[in-house]
Amino acid sequence: MAYLTLMERLKIPTYDNPKYARSGRVTIDREKCNGCGNCALICPGGCLYVAGIGKDKRAHLMEEEFPNCMSCNDCAAMCARDAIAVSQTYDFGFFYKTLHRGGLCAPRKF
Amino acid sequence: MKERIRGDYGSMLRRAFISKGVDMVEELEVEEKPASDDITAPMYQWKDGMDWNPVEKVILERRSVRKYKDKQVPDALIRRLLEMGRFAPTAGNSQSWRFMVIRDKKTIELMEKYARGRAKFFMFWLNWRTSPLGKIAWLYSQIAIRIMHNDLHPIPLSAMSVIADGTLKLFHGAPTVILIFEDRRGAAKPELDCGVCGQNMILAAHSLGLGTCWVGLVELLKYGIKWRRKLHMSYPYRLVEGIAVGYPIGHPDGMIERELQEIEWYEDGQWKTVL
Questions:
Q1: Rounded Cα distance, B223 and B242, in Å
Q2: A-chain residues within 8 Å CB-CB of B134?
Q3: Going residue by residue through chain A (110 aa), what tens digit of pLDDT does each one get?
Q4: Residue B251's closest chain A neighbor by CA?
Q5: Considering Cα of B223, then B226, then B231, then B232, what sign does the dihedral take?
Q6: Do A103 and B128 touch (CB under 8 A)?
Q7: Number of neighbours of residue B218 by Cβ within 10 angstroms
Q8: How many angstroms separate the CA atoms of B215 and A43, rounded?
Q9: Among residues A38, A64, B109, B231, which one has the fewest Cβ atoms lying within 10 Å of its Cβ?
Q10: Domains in chain A, CATH or no CATH each
């Protein structure tokens, strides 16, 4: 069981530094993606963009700004070609850190 | 007499029925319906490893929608959603809520405009990245985050800064907005009851082909005296949440992966962790 130490409870960094927090991350399958731009349209964090001309048009993940991806998975749900998937969830360190973390998992039938 | 009060009512009833000559056990037996291949068949029964039933499907496929078509939603449909909200479970059946539906495009725009101004004001004091106050803003934000740690969680904080920039609209340009007010005199946890009723509404909306999104930042409106008057936000009522309703652009619904969280499970005298 994970828990918060006193230090973690007291310290709330500004989260500008990637050292203190981890953004969500999406993986884009460049072979399946056709650059329709639906994912970039609905992304609430605005962390996806479409670049390229003609056949080379593909979705890309923005790298500079932080925090952007909140791993809501909307892009994965929107994509008609299953080209996009969330590989990592966001986690803020210290005060806002997630306890009891497990892996990502699709709905299961019991 | 003593025995009648203490004894369980089942056996009492059975005795009464037997005395009348009716066989109770046979009366209570319910005929089991044969399972068919119809999609609605598994609604009220469970089998090992069965497919999702329609309700589960609606729950799993619902995604928050943040891009809406301009097309207005028919008012009968909105009435139907509110009807679903009305039948939500509440503490002590107190139904401590008040709904407000806003379908006027201009009013929604004015609300968005006000929210943007208010977000700008807060970001001036709290956003150390953009504020001209610099280090003082950092100090203020550090104090404010410790006091209001839910409202100023990094995600709403960055959402507020995006609203202040003007790149994000408060209601995402939805044609209809449902505001939920909490009656503060309600039983036990009126705020939670409002959440339950809102969830009923958005699940019903999804099953009827609409898109919805919870908008918690409507709270920005409560800082304006004009909006407090206009939305009648006075004593027993407090603005809790807003729900943006509209037709989504594209098909944003689908099942996704979510994080598993540990569940503590106590059974047969020992603890275990279930994922």
A1: 16
A2: none
A3: 678 889 888 888 888 777 888 888 888 888 888 888 888 888 887 788 888 877 777 777 776 655 578 888 888 888 888 888 888 888 888 888 888 888 888 888 88
A4: A78
A5: positive
A6: no
A7: 23
A8: 16
A9: A64
A10: 30-89 (3.30.70.20)
